[in-house]
Design brief:
This protein is of the alpha/beta class. The protein has a single domain, classed as Rossmann fold, CATH 3.40.50. It is built from 4 helices and 8 strands; from the N terminus they run βαβαββαβββαβ. Helix 1 crosses helix 2. The longest helix has 18 residues.
């Protein structure tokens, strides 16, 4: 598959966006009390841990971090051509009556976040769920929006966004590419 690729965010840009998101979280919630961060497998997890460190540096309070796998909650599970890998879900704090901030790298159609909310509700009934994403690329199919966004990147459906995080990929950066083969972006959620 041929594509044109450009870096739209580097390591420093990612860090600045996460620092801003951390401040917005603290402002909107009037501090860090009763907040839990839940990172979606895979790249939402390091984003949650980075936000935890930044908030600890600002407030002196270490927020609990959980890991959530939404594989079995996907609405396209029956349509996948291969058997998906199920990863760990580990939420070592009480979800019930907490303010939960779901962390992910990109919001696109909203279907992943819908699945995340379903999976989270199976863990307990939070007081509130908020969403923090590094990139919002548009194209919602469900009425879901992020409360905290690092960067809005309007895209076409022929384009893709690839977030690279050091903890997973060995480097930090956000790439935007355009598929030259029109059929290669079909079916992407």
């Amino acid at each position: 598959m041929a594509s044109n690729t450009v870096e739209i965010m580097d390591k420093d840009g990612i860090n600045r966006a996460l620092v801003r998101i951390a401040h917005e979280i603290l402002e909107k919630n009037k501090g860090a009390e009763n907040i839990g961060l839940v990172g979606l497998q895979t790249r939402g997890v390091p984003i949650a841990y980075r936000l935890q460190r930044i908030i600890r540096d600002i407030e002196g309070l270490e927020l609990p971090v959980g890991i959530l796998d939404i594989t079995l909650y996907r609405d396209d599970l029956m349509h996948l051509q291969h058997q998906p890998n199920v990863n760990v879900t580990e939420i070592p704090f009480r979800v019930e009556n907490s303010r939960i901030i779901i962390c992910d790298e990109v919001i696109y159609t909203g279907r992943t976040i819908r699945a995340a909310m379903d999976a989270l509700m199976d863990q307990g009934r939070p007081h509130m769920i908020q969403l923090a994403v590094l990139i919002d690329r548009g194209h919602r199919e469900l009425p879901i929006r992020a409360d905290y966004v690092g960067k809005n990147i309007p895209t076409s459906r022929l384009e893709w966004v690839n977030v690279q995080l050091k903890e997973v990929d060995g480097t930090d950066g956000v790439l935007l590419g355009r598929n030259l083969d029109r059929t290669s972006s079909e079916g992407t959620i």
